[in-house]
Amino acid sequence: MRYISADYIVPISSEIINNGVVQIDDAGIIIKSGTKSEFPSVDIEHFSGIVLPGFINTHCHLELSHMKGLCKTGTTLIPFITDVVKHRDFEEEIILAKIKEEDENMYAAGIQAVGDISNKVDTAQTKSESPIHYYTFVEMFDFMQDSLTAGTIENYRAVFRDQSEGGLNRKSFVPHAPYSVSEALFEFINKANSSNATISIHNQETPAEQSLFETGESDFHDFVKGFGFSLDHLKPIGKGSIYYALKNMQAKQKNIFVHNTLTSEVDIKAAYEWSENCYWATCPNANLYIENKLPNYQKFINQKAKMTIGTDSIMSNWQLSVWEEVKTIKKYQSYVPLMSLLQWATLNGADSLGYHKQLGSIEVGKQPGLVNIDLDWKGEETDISNSKPFRVA
To answer: Is the pLDDT of residue 88 over 70?
Structure first.
């Protein structure tokens, strides 16, 4: 049994506790929380600053961990994707070692669960052994080519079969992005997943994606031609890419839209009219790395959108740390309330992945992990710029 104390306990789902204590058993399950006066005559471990639940990283590409530093910043999305394809092939020993290293780095940075994109099975062993809980998104794409759909399905059935599951580890088939998935492949994904699955899709990252669906004119035509295919058959719909996704996805499932750099308030409203099960994963450091642009978070706040936080891959980031993503948002759009960001980074993420009964908040019976951040807590006026997370349980 451990008794972990801090200047402030931040449960997320309830009021902050000044000079609080969290009692956990040997497995890290929350037994009780309260003030120090409620825990007389016990051996208390005290930490300066705040203690909060472990972070939830709702968007990662762990299998790209061997590509750190290989892509230049600010190139925009299409050149970045081209580099991803160019650099994927490394010696298996290097790939597996880097996957394990970044998994360990995430855990040390206080991350308790990850929504991870997988196109291969390289991450399966690490996930099966990691203390982090993984929701694996087996990501499918066929470049909108009907001739590729059957082969794509066959290939990714094998990836799905061999990816890790058990315990809190879960998996589902997911579409890569509106510009890369045909209606036939969407149909397979919808039928293959259970009604309680979580689905992840890259959304509205770059102007070329928007223009492909709005007018039909887009750099994606040349991108696809580079692989020997054509998008000439695609008819523009006069609206942004998210509307193609909404037409082809299942409203009953939990759907995480990722990046959303160009998503408008009208788009957010339309998504919630389609389904209340919409979540919006923001990856600010990756957005800056690739496009030098951030979403306008006020639009999401105005619509009371359910926001979550992701890191994307180490190929498109400087580190895999949810707390560093929080700091970036605070640096560039400081009007976003700190308590909102803490909820995005924890409970909202847990809810989006279906882990809300076990993770995301300090509540009796949960096993959320505990993270200490040594800072001078002043509520919304707290300066987080030089702070770092430290896992305590």
So the answer is: no
pLDDT tens readout for residues 358-380: 999 999 999 999 999 999 999 99
Q: Is 390 left (phi over 0), alpha (psi -120 to 50) or beta?
A: beta
pTM exceeding the 0.85 threshold for the entire prediction: yes
Q: CA of 37: how far to CAs of 33, 41, 44, 129, 381, in Å?
A: 11, 10, 12, 39, 28
Q: Measured over all CA atoms, what is the biggest interatomic distance in the chain, rounded to whole angstroms?
A: 74
User: Could you give the CA distance from residue 75 to residue 207 in angstroms, rounded to a whole number?
Assistant: 13
Domains of the chain are 2-52+375-391 (2.30.40.10), 55-359 (3.20.20.140)
CA distance 377 to 7: 8
| Residue corresponding to tokens 């509520």 | 379
Q: Distance between CA atoms of 385 and 110, rounded to whole angstroms?
A: 17
Query: pLDDT by residue (tens digit) across 245-295?
Result: 999 999 999 999 999 999 999 999 999 999 999 999 999 999 999 999 999
DSSP 3-state of 357: coil
* Amino acid of residue 208: A
Task: Return the H-helix or E-strand segment holding 182.
Answer: none
Over residues 325-356, the pLDDT tens digits come to 999 999 999 999 999 999 999 999 999 999 99
Q: Residue 254 pairs with which residues in a beta bridge?
A: 198
Which residue in the block uniquely carries the two structure tokens 């040390």?
108
Fill in the DSSP letter of residue 12.
S
Query: Cα separation of 381 and 319, whole Å?
Result: 26
- 336 contacts 305 by C-beta, under 8 angstroms: no
Exposure on the CB side of residue 172, measured as CA atoms within 13 A: 24
Half-sphere exposure of 121 (CA within 13 A, CB side): 12
Distance CA 250, CA 187 (A): 10
Instruction: Please state, in angstroms and rounded to a whole number, the distance separating the CA atoms of residues 260 and 282.
Output: 7
E-only strand ranges, 29-83:
30-35, 44-53, 55-60
Q: Which amino acid is at 39?
A: F
Percent helix, strand and coil across the chain, each to the nearest 5: 35, 25, 40
Distance between CA atoms of residues 29 and 105, nearest Å: 23
Residue type for position 192: A
Q: How many residues in total does the chain contain?
A: 393
